[in-house]
Request: fold
Amino acid sequence: MVTGSGAMLVATGTQIAQCPLRVLLVGEKEEDFFLIREILERNRGMLPAELEHARSLDEAHCMLEQKPYDLILFEHETGNAEAVQLLTEFHHAGRSVPFLLLTENADEKTVAELIHSGSWNCVSRSQLDGATLVRSIRGTLALDSMQKEQRSAEESLRKLSSAVEQSPDTVVITDRQGAIEYVNPAFEALTGYKSDEVRGRTPRILKSGEQGPEIYEDMWKTILSGNVFRGILVNRKKNGELYYVEESICPVRDSQGQITHFIANGRDLTERLRLEAQLLQAQKMDAVGRLAGGVAHDFNNLLTIITSYSELALDDVREDSPVATKIQEVLLAAKRAAELTRQLLAFSRKQPQALRVVDLNPVVAAIAKTLPRLIGEDIAFSFIPGQGLGPVRVDPVQMEQVLMNLAANARDAMPQGGHLGIETSQVHLDQDYIQQKPAAIPVGDYAVITVSDDGAGIPREHIAHVFEPFYTTKPAGKGTGLGLATVYGIVKQNKGYIWVYSEQGSGTVFKIYLPCAVKGRPAQLANSRPEAVAAGTETLLLVEDEPAVRRASAEFLRMQGYKILEANDGLDALSVAKQHPAAIDLLVTDVVMPNMSGGELAKELARRIPKMKFLFVSGYAGKTVMDHHVLDLDTNFLQKPYSLKQLGAKIRTALDIKKGMAAGHSGRVARS
Reply:
């Protein structure tokens, strides 16, 4: 097939059948025009053509602008320089019209220059007969067609090369034995290997050892049989980092159908799999968190009953009685159960919080003083406070729980002794640093707590599970599996991030990133206060829908001298309050009750009895309490399970609020 800009010629033996070829003769001599037209007419059966004449270069320009031609016959006498100029202009303008030069006396240099400028062929006037002209035209068109096909192939090759070079996916080409012949820039960027480092080597340099030989055996079996292998490979970069790649490897065949090469296309899945793992972890923790929050209310009510009646029973027996010892064991078991509940709530991020803007160093220093007793004498301990730490907004009590859990975890990892270190520091995380971390941490300034030990370390296969609830490698009875899950939950609840690095036999490092507070001044940590004396003579309205909890609390408070009015829900409480409008000093109410919540009850009673004070109790998690319009968890809230002494102390604190503050306080207990 031969194509010009305006015609298609199909060669069949010596005949060419198609639309007439459009030919433009450029030259001054009329006799040449008539001669060539006559020759073409005589050979029309072999080469149908229509000839037109341009007597000058200007005229040729105009005619070529007006319509397409398949061939230009160019008389050399039109002028050497002008001929070269015309050919060069058309060549640079992207015109693909082939030129055939008619000449008599042109020297070899001129002919070579004209051909270099775009002419495909030359024919001498002295040899200008039908056969020669037809042969020259057909040869010129064939050469032109070959050139166009070559240009098209080169352009396709250029596009293909550009696509491979610019592809975000890795491309590796190997020979049949697996020796690498080509890698694209994406491969270099992902693996850290340069092209000249891997050329001639095999992709085995990327093997991580994380996958068994069966996957590679299956890969070779698949591609050597001529099929496409698809799978996810765990590879290792030049710097030792692991990465996950979705690989497609297919064979490349020659013209005889024999496999000569393999081409592998890989897509980096590391980030996607990391995000999927984070989502899965979050979903698992959320599921357990919902479970924890759901059972907390009933469980805490039961623990409150156990604790309250145990304390009441303990008051009825002598201290040296065997029964007293047994009751003490019940109380200890209840306290351990209460701690388990608190850990579940902390892990699920539903524990009530008392957030403060604090300087991290004093908080950690205060906790650090207590850790040597926890970890034992066989373990050396050091605390190195950093300089220039920005303030952070955290719950200091929760931070104590985090460090205690991490210290206990380190202690268990060093049964033969070792070293536990805690450091604080200030860092600014930029985008480059964050991309290297397994967790998504926003850019910004952070105060960092680093807890490190030189214990046994965590096996690599366990690293991904250390923060999962109930996941433990300790022997049965040696742990609840909630220690690190609680740490994770608290850190997240305090808007922080936690990262762990461990090498088996070399120890473990936990880093906690706490975002620096933008506003507010660090608060001074108050010293622990002794419990307030529970006794009093005021009148309390006790509202509790759990009868056993209400009876135990009422009995204890009457023993302390208080006058107790009891109600089993909010509506009952309104009825009782109506009968004693001026006598009630304090409302002690459960938060979540049928018919009317504690928050709604407090709002109504605050309207009726402005001087009344309030104390809320609940077995639900802090978020649920907040949802029921209880605002000030720090001053007027008591979390179940509680001891009777804690209840008495909290009531005394609530009653002792100054009268000037009471009205303001009552206005804060609920929102509309």
